[in-house]
Amino acid sequence: MPIAQIFKKKFQTCMTHFPAISPMPSMTKFRLTRRQIFIAGLLSGFAMTACSSPSSDDNSVSLETARAELEAGHVTLIDIREPAEQATGVAKGAKLLPMSQLGSRLGEIPTATDKPVFLICNTQNRSSKILKALRERGYPHVRFVRGGMSEWSRRGWPVTKP
User: What CATH number labels 60-154?
Assistant: First the structure.
């Protein structure tokens, strides 16, 4: 599909969500210029960004920060991947607490807020969801690691067998 058609489709979708700027209903034919398509693409991008959930510093940390803090002994890193995933290698010093066992092992997550807890999974999808659940249960010092173990391994950082 040509790029112009993609932007035209996004523009038309945008118009349904923002009726104040949509064309008048009496218009039977609506032709877009390249400039209008470009502007519509920008608007739809901004709208999608505004509707997505933010990844603020209160919720996540970079891989670099997670590795440095773990190696310095300043954090508890919890690998929430399942045992079969952990068998491919884990970060040295990480606590292994599979997501499927979290409910029965919740007491193993440190509650003291003086030492942060970082959650890591394979890509950050599960760890970001678990973070939300832990925050609701009174764990304000927990964050998730952006990129997860897949990115850790891709960078060639050291892993150990569990």
Answer: 3.40.250.10
